[in-house]
Design brief:
single chain; 471 residues; alpha+beta; DNA polymerase, domain 1; hpI Integrase, Chain A; two-stranded antiparallel sheet
């Protein structure tokens, strides 16, 4: 959906190009106010409401004020829009509205009958409100509201047992992922899940188990229970972390750029030159380019550590060209309509991926993986890659991209290995044939959600539903 900048000033409205369809601002999800700016026509305010069948009903509110004519202001248009939204005839056909933004509070009230898991989570969330970054906190609240509170919220802390946790684990693993406001799908038996789906759900489950364990341990530390059982009975399930497999070759990168519209192509190039997240590139200002180093300064708006990212000459030329003619405080990358990117790239990027014939699952964040994987394959030390990406150490880089450093390992072995037999190295056609026959990438890890080593503490009843199928 093409949403405009906030339509509250004449300057903003004047800068918008004329077009056949309105520019929209979201008041609440499913409720919008918009501006018609058609060629050779006066400006008009409009409103629309999303109906239960997924379509929209639109209403013209009146003429908009402009430099040359009287009319409704932005605030007056919003007032009229809300009056229209409340009309009786719309109540039976309109979808329910909900506020813009993410939920900041738990959907749970403190219990009067005893200290519950929900009470422990309330205390834990209040601690995370001051200790976690904004996005981490919002994700935490969403996970607790959707997964944990409906299943464990009312359980008294002293009644929490391993059996309760086992039932919780099964419910989470069998519940399909839910995105946005889509309807909740029916549960799927664990035995029917393919290995990759089971692996992803186990990863989510382990995150949830970590939340519950810390919350219940905090409750014990704060004196709400005398028993340690409530947190000691919680253990992670064994799972296999799969290295990143989807990233682009340089030829695919060029095809992707060619498939993008110009403003998106610049954002894609920036990601490939830096490995930055889209949120970091969206917040990049002119003064951050060439600041102190031959590269850019990333302020990390989402709460990650600020860092410097070094650039090759080609990349530096690109960034300097994008900064030309702009003030120091200007945003470097904007949409063609002058908006900050934020999440506006998603549908455009998806269309470009399809147009370029790339894997359907490839998303913008895959450009960050492409950046890292290319450096690792070229033999860059993992410490340098980790620093460029903003990781605190090489552990994540090694786990995620270490499987790509085959050629570097081979070169080091050839250079460092001391020969056992005293004979000259001879050209062997068999070695050349073998190298040609081998894939550029290491073999794909067989489909499984089980790690090679299992250090998880797991009881018999838990093993019944995460048993090694097909072993």
């Amino acid at each position: 959906m093409d949403h405009a900048p906030k339509l509250d000033t004449l300057k903003t409205i004047k800068a918008l190009p004329e077009r056949a369809h309105p520019y929209w601002n979201i008041l609440e999800y499913c409720r919008h106010v918009g501006l018609e700016k058609k060629p050779a026509k006066p400006l008009h305010w409009v409103a629309r409401i999303r109906k239960k069948d997924g379509r929209y009903k639109q209403q013209r509110l009146g003429p908009a004020v402009s430099e040359n004519s009287q009319g409704l202001s932005y605030e007056e248009a919003i007032t009229l829009a809300r009056v229209w939204f409340a009309e009786q005839e719309l109540r039976g056909i309109a979808s329910a509205s909900y506020p813009v933004g993410t939920t900041q509070h738990l959907r749970y009230s403190k219990s009067d009958t005893g200290f519950t898991v929900g009470d422990a989570l309330i205390d834990y969330v209040e601690w995370k409100r001051i200790a976690a970054t904004k996005t981490t906190f919002e994700t935490l609240v969403a996970l607790i509201n959707f997964h944990i509170l409906p299943r464990l919220g009312s359980v008294l802390l002293d009644d929490l047992t391993g059996k309760t946790i086992t039932n919780f684990c099964r419910a989470v693993l069998e519940t399909p992922p839910k995105r946005g406001k889509q309807a909740l799908q029916v549960r799927v038996k664990i035995e029917s899940l393919d290995p990759d789906a089971l692996r992803r759900r186990k990863a989510t489950l382990n995150t949830l188990l970590g939340i519950v364990r810390i919350a219940t341990q905090m409750a014990w530390e704060n004196g709400h229970t005398n028993s340690e059982r409530s947190w000691r009975c919680i253990h992670r399930v064994p799972n296999l972390e799969v290295p990143r497999q989807i990233f682009l070759t340089r030829a695919q990168c060029r095809e992707l750029i060619a498939a993008c519209r110009p403003d998106l192509a610049d954002l894609v190039r920036a990601a490939l030159y830096t490995g930055c997240r889209v949120s970091e590139l969206s917040a990049l200002r002119v003064c951050d380019v060439g600041k102190d180093i031959f590269g850019i300064y990333v302020s990390s708006p989402k709460g990650w550590r600020p860092r410097y990212v070094y650039l090759p000459e080609e990349g530096m030329r690109f960034f300097l060209a994008k900064c030309a003619g702009k003030a120091d405080d200007d945003i470097v990358f904007r949409t063609g309509a002058g908006q900050i990117w934020k999440t506006r790239h998603k549908h455009l990027f998806k269309a470009a991926v399809e147009k370029a014939g790339l894997p359907h699952a490839f998303v913008f964040h895959g450009l960050r993986h492409t950046y890292a994987s290319q450096l690792v394959q070229a033999g860059a030390p993992l410490a340098i890659v980790a620093r460029q990406l903003g990781h605190a150490n090489t552990e994540t880089v090694s786990r995620t991209y270490g499987h790509l450093s085959c050629e570097s390992i081979e070169r080091e072995l050839a250079l460092r290995f001391a020969a056992l037999e005293d004979q000259p190295r001879e050209y062997d056609v068999r070695m050349r044939s073998l190298r040609k026959s081998l894939q550029a990438l290491p073999p794909v890890i067989p489909a499984s959600s089980w790690p090679r080593s299992n250090f998880a503490l797991c009881r018999g009843d838990e093993l019944q539903f995460v048993s090694r199928r097909g072993a």
